Amino acid sequence: MNRRTHAALAAAIAAALTLGLGACTSTGGDQGGDQAGVTTEGNGIIGGTPVKGGTLTILSNQDFDQLDPARNWTMPVMDVGVRMLYRTLTTFKAAPGAEGLKIEPDLATDLGTPSDGAKTWTFHLKDGLKYEDGTPITADDIKYNVERSFSPELPGGPDYAVRYLNAPDGYQGPLKGERLGKEAIEVPDAKTIVFHLKRPVAEFGYTVTLPTFAPVPKAKETGANYSNHPVSSGPYKIETYDRGKRMVLVRNTYWDPKSDPVRKAYPDRIVVDQTQKGTGIAERLIADQGDDKNAISYVDLVPSKISEVLTNPDVKKRLISENAGCTTKLDMNTTKAPFDNAKVRLAMQYAVDKEAFAATTGGPAFNDIATTYLPPVLTQGNPIDHFMIKPAGDPDKAKQLLTEAGFPNGFSTELVTSTGGKAQAEAIQAALKRVGVDVTITTVDPTAVNSIIGDKDKQPGLANLGWCPDYPSAATFLPMIFDGRLIKDKGNQGDITRFNDPETIAELDRIAGMSDLQEANKAWVALDAKIMDKSPAVPLTWQKKPLLVGSNIAGAYAHPVWAGQIDYAVIGLKSAN
User: Fold this and answer.
1) Given 110, 241, 500, 538, which residue has the most CB atoms within 10 angstroms?
2) What share of the chain is helix, strand, coil (3-state, %, to 5)?
3) Are the C-beta atoms of residues 201 and 1 closer than 8 Å to each other?
4) Residue 571: what pLDDT?
5) Per UniProt, what is one Pfam family of this protein (predicted)?
6) Separation of alpha carbons 505 and 497, rounded Å
7) For residues 51 and 53, what is the distance between their CA atoms, to the nearest angstrom?
8) d(CA 327, CA 309)
9) What does the alpha-carbon distance between residue 222 and residue 229 come to, in Å, rounded to a whole number?
């Protein structure tokens, strides 16, 4: 595939998501009011352009699950990693809306050169790139981290390299000394890396925005402990990190802003306080006193504080709430009875009260009812209602299906969720109770959810998670959550439902091989409908991301790629005093 064709496809990917953003930023009902306008100041940027200096505080109620770039696959944490701590071959522009969907060279000199029909991709590194200790960044360091993503000792990260690279079957990563050969990745010199893929991937220039394609120096490898102090190639380095309590970032003096067109690194220091409660974060930012004027929220505004924010103009103008492009789901463990029965799963589509669930996360001001797996940002901006079920559900139809499935009296099951997700779990519990399904809720620390749900022996019948596209393509959505070939007994990350359907897998492969992106988009939508009929999960809401910032914050906006999270590449203060 020639360069011009690749560029056209990349533009089409961005255009598809741009259409979706236009449709999804609108809000329904009086609750939202003119909320779409809360981020319009300064062309979608709250506070204008920041000054250099000062200390930015990020208030959170949770630790980062993984800062290791080979394992970082949670959208808010990816934002922290790739915008502050490490750089990737390419990255997304620092801008709100459609402009933020465009990619730029990051460590690489360009967006990559495809050859062999887009099965081979070559990247060249910029001059003078260094880590936080002053040692040079080499192409082999990027290869090494890509290899790490194959390691069973480092589970849970993006698996695009595993999916795409022409690597030998059974490759287990580099921790025991085995490196990938030239058939998968070539490093002809310190500044050149060549990827050989199993099949054409026209959008591979987008793929290498992921943290898998950040450098890791082999000499600093610490295995599972690398998350405690990833070696910085970005504008900030970790000064201290007390897990679950506090992380302090300071400037990486070897980061060269001339080589980095995206990250501005305005604050001198960034303090992440992970000891707060959601309500306390909201109360502090609403009050906006003292150092809290220099603070932003890492986590969503708690629903109990929504009306207090929306009815106070001075606070409301400090609220960011853009569509995250994500789908929240009720995931059913299809390997565990009775969810191994497709008719039982279909009954759940009718049993759930999505309206009640949405109310627990703020209602129409902060989410829309989801009616398919693919969010509107990946269906040309047009939401698709597959089953045409009322938002409150249809208990009678659900009971009928359960009777047909052999469960006229319902059944009992367990749902695991984070401590912060209890209200959402209770809404699901109440809705299923209407059709005779008794749900026991187990709440755990947010950092433990994935390890439980990803373990075949520990995973219960139900879980309430979601999925966001890693970059603007449906190829980063349906294959990630419904390709049964990549299910793991432990560390299972994408296909949480453990849905392993040969017909679906065959169609995933067929669409993946299509060179016409527009035809592929139509095929993804059709496949979405087929999977809905088999119902491994119930789509619940298409989320928005409500985040408050202090009055001295500047450069704050929701980035369209990182699930509506504030873009940490350009955040800072109005005044550093």
Assistant:
1) 538
2) 35, 20, 45
3) no
4) 98
5) SBP_bac_5
6) 15
7) 6
8) 25
9) 9
Among candidate residues 547, 552, 546, the one with its CA nearest the CA of residue 47: 552
Q: What does the CA dihedral 301, 306, 308, 310 come to, rounded to 10 degrees?
A: 110
Distance CA 101, CA 103 (A): 7
User: How far is it, in rounded angstroms, from Cα 307 to Cα 303?
Assistant: 8
pLDDT band at 14 (very low <50, low <70, confident <90, very high): very low
Q: Find the helix or strand (DSSP H, E) in which 18 lies.
A: helix 3-24
- The Cα-based distances of 447 to 74, 317, 465 in angstroms read 11, 32, 13
Select from 465, 495, 464 the least CA-distant residue to 478.
495
pLDDT at 516: 77
- Can you tell me which residue has the tokens 């109360």? 283
What per-residue string of b and e applies to 10-44 under the rule 16 or more CB within 10 Å gives b? bebbbebbbbbbeebbebeeeebeebeebbeeeeb
Cβ-contact 235, 255 below 8 angstroms: yes
Distance of CA 546 to the CA centre of its chain: 16
Confidence of residue 214 (pLDDT cuts 50, 70, 90): very high
Helix (H) or strand (E) holding 206, with range, is helix 204-207
CA-based torsion, 338, 340, 341, 345: positive or negative: positive
Which is it for strands 319-332 and 185-189: parallel, antiparallel or unpaired?
unpaired
Band (pLDDT 50/70/90 cuts) for residue 43 is low
Cα 416–chain centre separation: 20
Q: To which H or E segment does residue 13 belong?
A: helix 3-24
DSSP state of 125: B
DSSP 38-107: TT-HHHH-BTSSPBS-SEEEEE-SS--S--STTT--SHHHHHHIIIII---SEEE-S-SGGGGG-EEESS
Residues pairing with 548 in the sheet: 319
Q: Nearest-CA neighbor of 573 among 60, 39, 48, 41?
A: 48
Q: Which CA distances in Å does 301 have to 39, 236, 256, 393, 545? A: 15, 27, 35, 27, 8
What whole-number distance in Å separates Cα of residue 210 and Cα of residue 474? 16
Task: Quickly list H helices, 388-516.
Answer: 395-404, 422-433, 449-453, 478-482, 502-512
**Cα–Cα dist 428/28, whole Å:** 23
When comparing pLDDT for 548 and 562, which is higher? Answer: 548
Residue 440 CB neighbours (<10 A): 13
Q: Which amino acid is at 513?
A: G
pLDDT at res. 317: 94
- C-alpha to C-alpha distance for 212 and 215, rounded to whole angstroms: 8
Q: 173 near 240, Cβ under 8 Å? A: no
